[in-house]
Amino acid sequence: MTSAPLAKPHTKEREVQLTSQDEVIIQATDIVKTYDTGKVKVEALRGVSLTIERGEMVAIMGPSGCGKTTLLNCLSGLDVVDSGRVLVDGADVNRLSDNRKTEYRARHMGFVFQFYNLLPVLSAIENVELPLLVSGTSARRAREKALAALDTVHLRDWASHKPGELSGGQRQRVTIARALVNDPAIVWGDEPTGDLDSTNANEIMDLLCDLNEKHDQTFVLVTHALEVAERTGRIIKMQDGQITSDHRIIDREAGIWGPAVQTEAG
Amino acid sequence: MENLFGIPMNSIMLVLLALLGVSLSVVGYVVLRNRVMFLIGLRNIPRRMAQTTLIVIGLMLSTLIISAAFTTGDTVQNSISSQILTTLGHVDEEVLLRSQNGGGGAANPNGSFSETLAEEFEAALVDDPNIDGVLPILFEVVPVINPGTGLSSPGANIVGVDPNKLAAFPDFVSTSGDAVQVADLAEDEVYVNESLADEAGIQPGDVIEVFVQNRPEKFTVVDVVEDRVTTGVFDFEQTEGLVTSLETVQRVLGREGEVNVIAISNSGGVRDGVELTDAVVASVKRVIAEEGLDLDVEPFKQDGVEDAEEAGSFMATFFLIFGLFSIAAGMLLILMIFVMLAAERKSELGMTRAIGTKRGQLVQIFLSEGMAYNLAAAAVGAALGILISFGMTQIMARIFSEFDLNIQPTITLRTIVISYSLGVVLTFITVTFSSWRVSKLNIVRAIRDIPEPPGGRMGWRSLAAALAAIALGVLLFVTGMANDSMFPFALGSSMILLGAAIVLRFFRLPDRPVFTTMGLFLLLLWGLTVGNRLDFLFGELEGGPEMFFLSGVAMVAASTFVLIYNADIILAVLSRIGARFGRILPAMKTAVAYPLANKFRTGMTMAMMSLIVFALVMMSAMNLNFNRFALNDEARGGWDVLVEENANNPLGGDLVAALEAQGSVDTSQFRSVGRLSLPGRFTFPEIRQHPEDDFDDYFVSGVSPGFVDGADIALEARATGFDSDQAVWQQIQDREDVALIDAFVLDAFGPNFGPSFSLDGIPEGADVFDSVTIEVRDPVSGNTREEVRIIGVISFASSSAFFGVYIPERTFADVFGEAGSSQYYVGLESPGDAVGVAEEIESALTTSGAQASSIKKNIDDEQAFFRNFFRLMQGFMGLGLFVGIAAVGVISFRSVVERRQQIGMLRAIGYTRGTVALSFILESTFVAALGVLSGVGLAIWLSYFLMTSDEFPTSDSAYAIPWFQIAIISAFAFFASLLMTIVPSRQAASVPIAEALRYE
């Protein structure tokens, strides 16, 4: 995985590499991230290392301010690390130009945020088709795929409604449809159920788990909620910018979890 | 400047100062009673310095425009009155011979009267303490040649004054600043004034020739003196003159013992003497009556100073009216700025309300902040307005250069106070309204920063207000109809429509059909009020020039409603277009979606842009079409060169013979020559249509057969029975009791245009009419010709060059006697040679003092004058564009802050920096383009309806659209808006994604 799969993502060769069956899709090594507010410096990530395999559904947990969202942002290329290395599908995201990273996100990543982050001025279907349009898909094809994605989240009938006309659960499903519309290799979720009641939260998790199972996509979710985390296959816990534990499910029905990887901290 | 819209400026200042006091008292109340609210308001100011700067700029624009208009008025007034005072010197009143019938003319055609009469007059006033001098004068226009340089002046005023009566008139000052004495002059010596010295290259010591009755008289120039009325400056156009003793001028003119004017100097100086004018005029009138003198007095200086004041008021009013569009746009900008400030602080405001702040206190917070901006912005605006007006007056000085007006930038304390107070008060009102509007927030939604739910049910209060609006509208409508008045009619109709729309909304009819229908009806209504297009439905309704502004504002508002409520159709079209450009599509989708989602903000920005573009394009269209119909080639009437005879050196009624006698002009290049006879210099012909009417002064000319043969002057309308224009002209040659008249007497011609005399009985826009008769009178002799039949109206295009009543030459002779002077019109085989031929003619007739000019060049000069003045107006109105551009900037900066999180999300899902920036730029482009298109479209509509209406003589096919100017105006508005978006779009593009996603 030392090739540079993101260097030329638009070539056929690159597409083949991206869809290869390599086991590890994300590899972070000793990443450090510090926020400098001018008056104080906050060490959000203090030498975090982890590996995520293709098709895994991972939950990152921890108290507020422990660095879990920062970790997600750094892994997904939304933020840049101060030191360390993040390989996504074999490419060092910190060495990519902004445009390359952006293009990769548009083609191969999906995002689900706590507050939906839909554009209020666009209808559901227009929100969903945006990632396709920015990656150059034709308008007609984008519309077809967006409708299909809304179908997947059972919102086809609400396609022409604007976010303001949808419930919280429906909005989050639109966000999920938007995250999935480009068949991403990785879906990132930052508190995807954080703004929902338990019924809606369960429905969303059912949907995510189902998609993970059916499409073998990698899901990395940041969450506070243990019941959400327990629906995934792996739970990484963080505190003070470091990973304190990392467990995979061994027997879901029995609720047995075992260590995933021995981290430096853990 | 003493009056504005007829209201004394001092009264305006006092009212505004009172209102300023009220505004400041409100803030003072907040400071004393709710200091915390005041401090919260003030502490918001330094939060975002860039935004604060933009707000101050936005707030100052209205004051700037007001200040510029007023200062321009002051400068024009002061420049003209200074020039008048300087030129008149110590002459305050003039006494002329009274006409036999009390009209405007003189009993003697050349206006002369005996020195004895002057002496009687002087003796009767000798004890009047308000008068310190009386000066009998004889003057005439004569050609002057300087053989030394070969240069000449075809028309200089030679002035003769009694050297023994000059003690009270110390106005003879050499250009070197020394006082000179007329008494020192020998009978062959003169002083020439500065203008004549410049024109004919005269130096002290030169010998010049003055021609009277084609006879040269030699004079030695003793010195060059400053331009004064007593040295020959009788108006701004004819400033050349020379002065010597009265006796000498009487001898030269062959009018021994005669004078034609008596100048009076009031006690006091040049300026303060004016204050005694009323007393002196009353005293002089009493003396004239008591002594039975055949004289009349005119308050020359007072009239001039009043004219200057009127000119100043006219300029200020003119600029203010045309600046109204910008001021209106500026107030919209203020409203929008405060609504956006409130939007930015929505959560804070919600929290403030949640912890117990009342709505009124919220208003106080905003008011305190707004007034702090306001007080600073108005000061900056007033100062910048003054600077801009100085720039404008310099341009005006160039435009009016032919009048030799010396522009002196002037600021008065009163103007500063009025501009500042008006700016502060207007902003205070707008800020108060905005603050009240933003204080109406839902606390929970504000704290959570949730948008207001769309289309909420309207309350009963709104219904009551709508019904009240309808009732008031009906009242206004009926009043308008009853008084045939356009404004109440249109306003009432609009209120009915608006009220009806609100009522329909109350009953939950959807927004789009309701507001679209209302907007379209309003557009039609206001669009049709111009040019009386609604006459067929509601009869003839009268409207003043204010209808131009009101129609513009109403149409822009209506068009904004229609566009905003139907912009999704535009979105669909643009999306389809965008789909063809692949990667632009996502940027275009968001670029169009955001403005459409925020109707208030987009509508306001569009309206601002539209208002200004509308005003500018309207101005261009009016200018172009006015020039096309009034100053086109048809105006020449088929002639190429105009030769104006000097009354003191007549050409004997035959221009060709006079030229052939000189031998230097090849008259074979003349295709035709015509002559118009004019009355004497002191004769002001009079006409009236009905016996019960008073006579009006009007131009009357006698038409020679040669003029009829050579002219090609089209007619606007012909009397019944004539099948061609030529047949009408032929009657002028064949009969005595017929006349032609210019088109300006048709009272339908435009708002407030045309002379005081108007002709009844010729319907608007008619090609054929039943002939009407007028009466023509010579006020000097009292000769009258009744029943002169008007058989043709000269075309509008030719009316500016051929103005007045045209009667057959022999009829003219019957009424006015021998012509005072003649004008000769020459048609050339090669019209392109007109300028050269005019120069040749003038040169050949130098000793006669005849003035020749190319008619086409005269028209071109006139066209250039109007064009330049229109451009100055456009430049002034263009200041308003900065309002629109500032609005686009304010919105763009605000949008970046507001959408920070959404920008982060867009970047997360794959928008590149370029796409984000492009989206912002396209968004501004979309709003600016809609505003520009709306403004251009409405201006073309309104100008077309106005210029092709019966009030203006442009036919449908002749109407022209000023495409070039539209392109320039649109491009400037458009690209300046884009420029304003570049910085915020770059800010948007560089938003850090992870940070933005956390942003709340």
Q: Which series of helices and strands of chain A comes N to C? A: HEEEHEEHEHHHEHEHEEE
Supply Rg of chain A. 18 Å
How large is the share of residues in beta strands of chain B?
5-15%
CATH topology of the domain at 55-73 and 97-259 in chain A: Rossmann fold
Low-confidence region ranges of chain B: 748-754
| Beta-strand content bin of chain A | 25-35%
Mean pLDDT of chain B: 84
What is the name of the CATH superfamily of the domain at 55-73 and 97-259 in chain A? P-loop containing nucleotide triphosphate hydrolases
Q: What oligomeric state do the depicted chains represent?
A: heterodimer
Helices and strands of chain B: which structural class? alpha+beta
Please state the overall shape of chain B, judged from the principal axes of the Cα atoms.
elongated
Question: Would you tell me the structural class of the helices and strands of chain A?
Answer: alpha/beta
The largest inter-chain interface, given as chain pair and residues per side, is: A-B, 36 and 35 residues
Characterize the largest beta sheet of chain B: strand count, sense, and whether it forms a barrel.
Answer: 13 strands, mixed
- Characterize the main sheet of chain A: 7 strands, mixed
Secondary structure tally, helices of chain B:
32
* DSSP E strands of chain A, number: 11
